[in-house]
Amino acid sequence: MKRAERYSYDESLTFLREEADSVERVELDPKRHRILSLGPMREVYWEFRLPLPFPAIEVEESLDDYLSRIPAWIPPYMIVLIQAGAAAIGYFEEGEVVHHKAIKKYMKRHKRDKSQISYLNTRGKSKAGSRIRLANTVRFFEEINERITPWVEELEPERILYSCSAQLWGMLFQSKTPPPFEKKDPRLIKVPLDVNIPDFEELLRVNNIVIEGIFNAENP
Fold first, then answer.
1. 211 in Cβ contact with 52 (< 8 Å)
2. Gap between the Cα atoms of 81 and 138, Å rounded
3. Which of 40, 133, 135, 169 is deepest in the core (most CB within 10 A)?
4. Are 79 and 159 in contact, with CB atoms under 8 Å apart?
């Protein structure tokens, strides 16, 4: 049976610095943004999912080297939440929202609750209502990119946290107004949460979770 504990940004940094002197073997997991304490047979004693604003772990980096790169304060970051027809985006400093925007567009056929993108992929040509939804879809991604571009270029967030399906994420990069980062930008990290329909309240809820570290260990 496992026990889980949540740590603030400061508590997470303190915990890892203290544990670095006591554990015999650790493994840094860049893909899942976590640190594992391992036994002699690679059994997991505990795992720590890092606060998402922490820097990205580099391949084959030691714990000491990684800890030396973590700032004592929460660095600036962005959160981008996208679902069909709804997005919530925000720029944060010291864990607090500084700029934010909720974007909504009519992109679904209400009777079937299917986005216009999916509908066109399965049905082909569209009628007048479908063309309106398609135009809204195009504008939806342009508006997201127009809003976040100055945040990235002028405010320079160190992390970009996002929640978006693979299909919609691809559409973001196909927009006539491109996003201000590449698909493999090292600042990007996917939010490991189930996200509700994006709005300002959901943006704040997600932020409260991702700025914490999560410690899991086997009960003795």
1. yes
2. 17
3. 133
4. no
Residue 77's identity, in one-letter code, is Y
State the Cα torsion 69-70-74-79 to the nearest 10°: 80
Roughly what angle, to the nearest 10 degrees, separates helices 116-123 and 128-150?
A: 130
Show the tokens assigned to 92.
């944060």
Number of Cβ within a 10 Å radius of residue 13: 20
Write the secondary structure of the chain as one string of H (helix), E (strand) and C (coil): CEEEEEECHHHHHHHHHHHHCCCCCEEEECCCCEEEEECCCCCEEEEEECCCCCCCCCCCCCHHHHHHHCCCCCCCEEEEEEECCEEEEEEEECCEEEEEEEEECCCEECCCCEEHHHHHHHHCCCCHHHHHHHHHHHHHHHHHHHHHHHHHHHHCCCEEEEECCHHHHHHHHHCCCCCCCCCCCCCEEECCCCCCCCCHHHHHHHHHHHCCEEEEEECC
Residue 60 pLDDT level (bands cut at 50, 70, 90): confident
Return the number of other C-beta atoms located less than 10 Å from residue 89's C-beta.
22
CA distances for 129 relative to 2, 8, 14, 39, 175, angstroms: 52, 48, 56, 60, 21
Integer Cα distance of 12 and 211 in angstroms: 10
- 5: which strand partners? 215
- Total-model pTM: 0.85
